[in-house]
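User: structure tokens for this one?
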Amino acid sequence: MAEETREVRGRLPKNLKIAFEIACARLEITQTAALEEAIRDWLQKKESSEKQH
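Assistant:
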């Protein structure tokens, strides 16, 4: 069974959005996959920093 998904929305500066689109195209990865990786990395980083305090 496929994992249930939800939509995430946000606003970014135009130059950051364009750079993200270009990077995803160069890496041949979907923006969804890149965002999921970025969010997982961010969560892991935050959890690690909380454990250090």
